[in-house]
Amino acid sequence: MQQLTGQDAMFLHAELDGLPQHIGGVSIYDQSTAPEGKVRFKQILSMLEDRVHLSPIFRRKLAFVPYNLGRPYWVEDPDFDMEYHVRHIALPKPGDWRQLCILAARLHSQPLRRDKPLWEIYVIEGLNNVEGYPPGCFALLLKVHHCAMDGATGTQFMNIVHDLTPETRKMDAAPPWIVERPSRARMLGRAYIDAWRKPGRVVEMVKEAAPAFKRIREGRKEQAFHDLEDKPKTRFQGKISPHRVVEARKFDFEVIRDIKNTQPGATINDVMLTIVAGGLRKYLESKGELPDQSLVTGCPIDVRSAEERAAGGNMVGFMNVGLRSEIADPVKRLAAVHEEAQSAKAYAEALGPRFAVDLADVMPGNVLSLAIRTASATGLSEASVMFNTIVTNVPGAPFQLYMCGAALVDSISLGPLLPNVGLFHIVYSSVQNKQGSISLSFTACRDMLPDPAFYADCLHDSFEELRAAALKPKRKRRKRAS
């Protein structure tokens, strides 16, 4: 048995009715590269069964401590059935992009059963009319509960089910599968010991927090960073409905890098934040709802050490970044976003990047659950606005991947919504067909964003404006006649 960390359990507590907390994505494959020019559903099932031992996510489920006196445990599911978790469906004709996004949103809005391993895969055929894709493509939609993995561990999981060539590699024989049945007495005993140890961990955390708060005070005096206290309320703050929308746009990695290079010190993430800011500006302006002050995004950051890279679960810090959406000029906005990102990083370093991880470990689950439910219930309050949206960066594989011989030609990511935050963006970089690309996808509450294609166009227009302004050719000065 392995106990969930405090941060892993936090995503269970955050799961309310109509607010599932799983992550995932849609991967699209070209069957023409497969050995027989076609991939059958049984091949995918066989490949997954051959690799089921390579990740604990496949076969383990939750075991809850009696009376919720401690955090749940991961245990092997003795009744694990691969065919329950992997399902075969098809888009209706004509099988276009809009239909794929609608289907993805509907599947993503449904919670995972907690009495089973917390993942599902949908193999989707019928992508016959999607612009830019070869005919006969199929998609694979993955759902995994956030308590089981974050974006970084998700990348490792995807590498397990893919190959580097069209030839499907054979796995070594799996070790014996040992199923340990949880004992109520054992879990209660551990909960009792943890209850005695927790006050000591709280004292240690308080001792570690004191110098952190001192660093924050000094940073404010030196203006190394600034607080984002005046956060506006937008249509994306409030009660979240159980319905979702999904959309995405893809950009050329080389163009994004060229834009980055026009601003000294800027990063790829700064450019993507600037594009999001421009898209939000255009969308809210079209509704007559653009705030005068800057929108703020929450940005999850991976805080694993080198030794913890193979660890599963979640190790995520957080920083708030001003999007400077009040700035109309895209080049000036990029410079301002870069400055905001530097400020947010300095603040996170002063506080300690693992502060959120440590806090979740010492906070009792029932207190955390109550706080999340209270935040959800008071979603219409101005004081409850922590940030207006979330933008997270998930790096994909820097090389071409294949599944059962089919080449991966595109990927979009799906994220969870949080109380009072009805819009979640994911930046996903990858290589397909030997070309680097960055997809910017979003998941949103359908009541808050009923026109996802229009917002996706706003993001694309924001990119085009930034590219035109940042990469416009410089005029050569004319020599004066002597």
Brief overview, please?
The protein is an alpha+beta fold and 482 residues long. The protein contains 12 helices and 15 strands.
Describe the model.
The protein is α+β, with helices and mostly antiparallel strands and 482 residues long. It folds into 2 domains: 2-170 and 184-188, Chloramphenicol acetyltransferase-like domain (Chloramphenicol Acetyltransferase, 2-Layer Sandwich), CATH 3.30.559; 199-395 and 418-470, Chloramphenicol Acetyltransferase (2-Layer Sandwich), CATH 3.30.559.30. The chain has 12 helices and 15 strands. The strands form 3 sheets. It has a 6-stranded mixed beta sheet, sandwiched between helices. A 6-stranded mixed beta sheet has the order 8-15-14-11-9-10, sandwiched between helices. The longest helix has 38 residues, at 184-221. The chain is globular, with a radius of gyration of 23 Å. Residues 475-482 have low confidence and may be disordered.
Q: Which CATH C-level class of the largest domain is it?
A: Alpha Beta
The total beta strand count reads 15
CATH architectural designation of the largest domain: 2-Layer Sandwich
Q: CATH topology of the largest domain, what is it called?
A: Chloramphenicol Acetyltransferase
Poorly predicted spans? 475-482
Instruction: Indicate how many domains the architecture comprises.
Output: 2
| Mean pLDDT rating | 86
Measured by DSSP, the beta-strand proportion falls in: 15-25%
**Topology as H/E string?**
EHEHEEHEHEEHHEHHEEHHHEEEEEH
> Could you state the oligomeric state of the chains shown?
single chain
Share of helical residues: 25-40%
* CATH superfamily caption of the largest domain: Nonribosomal peptide synthetase, condensation domain
- Rg is 23 Å
User: Strand pairing plus helix content: what structural class?
Assistant: alpha+beta
Rough outline: globular
Give me the side-by-side strand order of the main sheet: 5-6-7-2-13-12
- Measured distance between first and last alpha carbons: 86 Å
Main beta sheet: 6 strands, mixed
Number of helical segments? Answer: 12
